[in-house]
Write a structure and sequence with these properties.
Layout: E1 20-21, E2 28-30, E3 33-37, E4 43-47, E5 58-61, E6 67-70, E7 80-91, E8 95-101, E9 107-113, H1 116-119, E10 129-134, E11 139-142, H2 145-158
Antiparallel strand pairs: 1-5, 2-3, 3-4, 5-11, 6-10, 7-8, 7-10, 8-9
Length: 159
């Protein structure tokens, strides 16, 4: 698998509805979380219960679960972290959509609610370097479409 956009999936797509790949080596269970490495070697954690022994997986995260931090901010320990540069932002009133370019060339879509940040006039701007952070609990495995089809068939057989 290849690394990708962040949003709904990391790997071949880390972004809204897309996917992310695990990169080198099989995901490894460490305590209550498994660790998968994406194409650039970044380690991302996900709930260990989602691992199925596959040597490669695609992982995802909903774009609204990702928070943006200034490059100078220190992310909280235990969070998944990816770095990038904001390419575009769209203020939509209740939220702001950001398009963030990763150093590996992939793109991640992030939706942030406009709470205090918008009122203070401190929205992130295009060109800013940021950390994209989220809880490992918000990370999930995206199964290939053939696996989803087989899962649906098995579900029909048991119904």
């Amino acid at each position: 698998m290849t690394a990708g956009r962040v949003g709904a999936a990391l790997g071949s797509a880390l972004g809204s509805g897309d996917g992310v790949s695990a990169g080198e080596g099989a995901p490894v269970a460490v305590g209550e979380y498994g660790v998968a490495r994406i194409g650039d070697g970044t380690a991302l954690r996900l709930p260990v219960g989602q691992l199925d022994g596959a040597s490669e997986v695609q992982i995802g995260v909903r774009p609204e679960k990702i928070r943006l931090l200034d490059e100078s901010a220190e992310p909280e320990p235990g969070l998944n972290v990816l770095d990038g540069r904001i390419r575009d932002m769209s203020y939509t009133g209740a939220s702001t959509q950001y398009v963030v370019d990763r150093p590996d060339g992939e793109t991640v879509t992030v939706y942030e609610q406009n709470l205090a940040r918008a009122a203070e006039g401190s929205l992130h701007r295009p060109g800013e370097q940021v950390h994209m952070v989220w809880s490992p609990d918000d990370t999930f495995i995206v199964r290939p479409s053939s696996d989803r089809h087989q899962d649906a068939e098995r579900h029909q057989d048991t119904a």
